[in-house]
Amino acid sequence: MDMKQLQSFTAVVRYRSFTKAAERLYLSQPTISTHIRNLEEELGTCLIVRTKRSVDVTPRGQELYECACNILSLRDNLIRRWSSNESSIIQLGASTIPSAYILPEILPAYGKAHPEAYFTIHQSDSRGVVEGILNGSFDLGMIGMKYDHEDLTCIPFYRDRMVLITPVNPHFLSLKEQDAPLQRLLQEPIILREQGSGSKKSAEYFLDSMGIAEEQLKVTARINDQESIKNLVAGGLGVSIISERAALNFVQEKRVLLFDLPEHVSQRYLYFVMKRNYALTEHVRAFITHVKKYYALDGMP
Which of 63, 105, 142, 228 is most deeply packed, by most CB within 10 A? Predict the structure, then answer.
């Protein structure tokens, strides 16, 4: 099994055509067919069923296709990182809070100290960033929750906490003056984050600590954008549990009210995530050092 065989195989599966695969790879059809046949002989199984009208993939072929795509992606990313033109570019995956609120704060200073370094930033939720790290798409990730995975290392760099925000109106101003219990506030219509985000996991942890199941809440919307959530809360659609770092500007502008959550369940960290035992480039190591110094806090785990 070699890379050329895997390239031919994935192209045939992708385009469901030996002809199109040959055209895309600038190879002859007999060469493509030879690559597929050699793979099948080596693996001792049928991968592709070819008829006059269609090209079908067997279950074993589909399994190999998924693995082959990851192998080719890892190869391409390794070549890209090692090429002289790309060596100073950091492929950074960042979840919502780091990409929207942390990176704008730290990148200007880092850029001045390291003018030779450049970033390509890919925004996703925490789960999407982790997937990008595992498949080799990203050099480094910044996420809102710790992932326990044998192939990953997570390093905390920022202490955050979850808070509850509400619209600014007489009803909630009265509740704030009364120091209303959180159980009362959680009876209001609530806006939640999407599955896969670190903020959603942190909110779930808080609710579990309060003995409140999500089914008991009056969920009025699920939004995957932090800014949209704040705007909807400010507009009166409901309350929400979000990152204090994300809520800060709306609180300062008096567009929403902030209610504290119990400290022992509201605190969380933002993390760097990377492949375990992975050789980081000099620029990635310098960026990690810069961020950890910028947000240096006592008591980091």
Answer: 142
